[in-house]
Write a structure and sequence with these properties.
D-Maltodextrin-Binding Protein, domain 2, 5-stranded mixed beta sheet
């Protein structure tokens, strides 16, 4: 024969609360584990604005083949470098020139690296070339409106300055500069809308433009830049980040760059320009 056990109201409530806590502690961790297992892996890539088109295509193909999403932060190479240093977050860095990658390495931000393609500077003019620009020297002609990249923000700005200095005409051209832009894409807008007569821009970005014409800069006068990509030391997904870098550097990845007007690395014409 069993004796009945009775609890007062407060005791009953305490037992009920204890049982609920015990039940939740058993179920919730399992749910969290399942959610974590189901959450798709993703990468954060800091990428120079000039590589947007091929890198968007590569990101989509990478997700299709590996099920891993790629989120891009597009901006000027130096702007990205500052963001990486400040946040200490992200997985991959792809600036417009090895100069910025080397800076990042010295700061302890990057490690594994691959070389992908070249950035070839050209003179970009509005369709019809209203100012009649045919060479670098013409950028110094009176009333020619020149717009260049900001050397503190974008790789093309730093390179543009160096090209003018290399050819001894920076001082003459400087008086014609009407604006400096933080990204190469802004330079394209200025030229396509005829708000400037000439700029120095990466060839691949304007090769097929309907509103812009190209004036080539002879190799001996030019400064060709090699475009690198590499993993960040801040990455918590180093194996996945390296897989993405190698995917971009593969023949499949470089073919996408060539489709968008880039010259894949290595190339005998440009050699090991940095």
């Amino acid at each position: 024969m069993y004796s009945a056990i009775y609890y007062d109201g407060d005791t009953t409530k305490k037992i009920a609360i204890f049982m609920m806590i015990l039940l939740c502690s058993t179920i919730i961790p399992g749910c969290i584990d399942k959610e974590q297992e189901q959450t798709p892996e993703s990468l954060l890539v800091y990428c120079g604005a000039g590589m947007r088109k091929p890198m968007d295509d590569i990101g989509a193909l990478f997700k299709e083949e590996y099920g891993i999403s790629v989120s891009y932060n597009y901006a000027g190479s130096n702007t990205l470098l500052s963001q990486m240093e400040l946040t200490q977050k992200g997985d991959v860095y792809m600036p417009g020139a090895t100069y910025y990658f080397d800076l990042a390495r010295k700061k302890g931000l990057t490690d594994y690296e691959q070389l992908i393609t070249y950035h070839v500077p050209v003179i970009a003019v509005p369709r019809g070339n209203p100012a009649g620009v045919t060479s670098l020297d013409d950028l110094a002609e009176p009333e020619v409106r020149v717009i260049l990249g900001d050397p503190k923000a974008a790789a093309i700005g730093k390179v543009g300055n160096k090209i003018l200095e290399k050819n001894g005409i920076y001082g003459s051209v400087e008086k014609n500069i009407i604006a400096r832009s933080a990204t190469v894409n802004e330079l394209i807008i200025y030229i396509s809308m005829k708000q400037a007569d000439a700029s120095i821009i990466w060839e691949d970005l304007v090769a097929n433009s309907e509103k812009i014409e190209i004036v080539e800069i002879p190799v001996e006068q030019n400064i060709i830049k090699t475009v690198p990509i590499g993993t960040l030391t801040s990455s918590e997904k180093k194996d996945t980040a390296k897989k993405f870098v190698d995917f971009v550097a593969s023949s499949e990845g470089k073919a996408i760059f060539e489709k968008h007007g880039f010259t894949a690395y290595p190339c005998e014409k440009y050699g090991d320009e940095q």
